[in-house]
Amino acid sequence: MSAHLSAAPPPSVRVRAPGKVNLALRVGPVGNDGYHPLATIFQAVSLFEEVTATHSMPGSGISLTVSGPQADAVPTDETNLAWRAAALLAERTGLPADVGLHITKGVPVAGGMAGGSADAAAALLACDTLWDAGLPRQELVELAAELGADVPFSLLGHTAVGTGRGDLLTPAMTRGEFHWCFGTQREGLSTPSVFRRFDELAGPSTPDVAPAADDTELMHALRAGDAVALGKALHNDLEAPALDLRPELAAVLEVATDSGALGVVVSGSGPTVAALGRSRQHALALGAAWTAADVVDAVWCATGPAPGTQLITSISR
Ligand code: C5P
Question: TM segments (predicted)?
Answer without folding.
Answer: none
